[in-house]
Amino acid sequence: MSKHLIEVEHLRQYFPAGGFGKNKKFVRAVDDVSFYVDKGETLGLVGESGCGKTTTGRTMLRLYEPTGGKFTFDGDVIFDVANKQYANMLPYRKRMQIVFQDPYASLDPRMTVGDIVGEAIDVHKLAQSKQDRYDQIIHILERVGLNSEHANRYPHEFSGGQRQRVGIARALAVHPEFIVCDEPISALDVSIQAQVINMFEDLQEQMGLTYLFIAHDLSAVKHISNRIGVMYLGRMVELADSYELVDRPLHPYTKSLISAIPIADPKQARESRRIVLEGDVPSPLNPPSGCTFRTRCPYADERCAAEVPAWREVENGHFCACHHIDKCN
Amino acid sequence: MGEYLVDVKNERLSFFTPAGEVKALNDVSIRLKEGEVLGIVGESGSGKSVTAYSLMGLTAHPGKLLGGELHFNGHQVEKMTEKEIRKFRGNEISIIFQDPMTSLNPVYTIGNQITEVIRLHTDKTKQQARERAKELLELVGINEPDKRLKQYPHELSGGMRQRVMIAIALACEPKLLIADEPTTALDVTIQAQILELMMELKDKLGMAIIMITHDLGVVASMCERIAVMYAGRIIEYGTTDDIFYHPKHEYTKGLIRSIPRLDTKEHERLVPIEGTPVDMLNPPAGCPFAPRCDAAMHICLREMPPVTTFGDVHYTQCWLNQKEEMEKGASHE
Prior knowledge:
The complex is a heterodimer of chains A (about 325) and B (about 325). Helices cover about 30% and strands about 25% of the residues of chain A. Chain A has about 325 residues and is of the alpha/beta class.
């Protein structure tokens, strides 16, 4: 019996990308990622596009079939690829939900908002009667700041922020314990982002939710998360308490990521010195040997090319995968 | 005249959609000197892109310019014929679009697309244009320009493509570069590269830049002047320090308050701007921000506030500022 609500060990997700037989190629979208999330906690996951953060979230919910690794939810094994153990997902779909990035693409334009939220209630047979179903829908819509009037409208009648509220209501309809929030604020206007972030926080407090909050905007993630994991090219490079991570980053990638964020304060922006990384993220089809960050890392040497740095706990709760932690600090 | 490179006066522009008239720009005025960087910030639909596009004569159907003057470098853009505009667009003024994935033509090579601009606007031969294209690629920090010229857009990464877009925009050394959310589609580390490149090029070539963005962080580090737009109006205009340290309009204040900051030590709750963005088909009478404004007064819901100025540059459109100024004036008498 483990004490964490969510436990992910050595998660791998490879996607086939052309080639036959021996020459078959794979995109290593997620490669050997391990972490845990406690009940009521928010773990943030940041990284650039293509680093595997979204895939991690989706694989956990078995929206993709995992290539390797083990995922335990509240002590129950959801999948354990090595031992060929796979749980029946239906009961767990009620306990784990997801909010998608694009509120424009993730809602069926032909369904009313009431039906979008109600569909989950139907699938899991949570309503006793028609009236009960209706009451539940209204109750959930009110929770996310919408009202009964909205239930009969279609998604196109709503603004982006309101649509994202519908997406959240849909996830909440089955009273889940754990929600994967996959870039839920990226598509929204700045003034609306803060509304949605506050709502996530309120809901967590009221319903005791646990979040995996995926985003590329580190300042927003820092705001909502207790701990943050940083991913680069399919691997987790650093994981720590959110204040610790921003104040004392250990991995050179985390450092450059933090310094690259434009500061909304002209005086600080003028004084700050940016670490501008050279080049682009390498293709995940053909990742560099050893440490995947070495091609852009100012500290890289032969050792980085030869061996993959181990994922280790450097300080209490501060994990990092780098050969040269001492050298770059 | 002559003092400003860009001088837009009281521009009014509407889109006549089947659902009704959308007043995209209402009395928008912008001035920019040579070599200056102006940031236009606002939410989607606030009119920031339309302002810049109309300056290039790129108002799409069903948009119509209803009033105002658009002066650029001695030209009066709204009076130019399509033929004249075609000569001047891409030559004296050029643009980088938001999405480098879709703004390059996928069926032509990079070289083709750069030389097209050069040959259109100068009388260089094919060979000379190619040499110039190579220079430009080097200028924007692309290595192995010979190889890149023969490649197609899909062979390049997002950051690389945006560099190519910049190279195309700079081909004729324009006096003004309009950057329409140039880094929104890019990752933060690539964004930092592109912003740095743009500032370098600005110093090297001495061009003016209009930077359209919704990211206050980007304007804070790059711009000298900032225009904050809301519902087709410039509701506040000032130097970067005015806007960030002495914002006068409630919307600007709210916008700055609502950004999550990286340097907070304890968990603070964000202060969002409540409500939803304006419906541009049925804008409220009076100040467009009034329905979302905490400090709205009766008059805000009825009449559009006049301009209140603070010093030479800084101005707002808000009844609260107007009221304060009047009270100040009254106490002096």
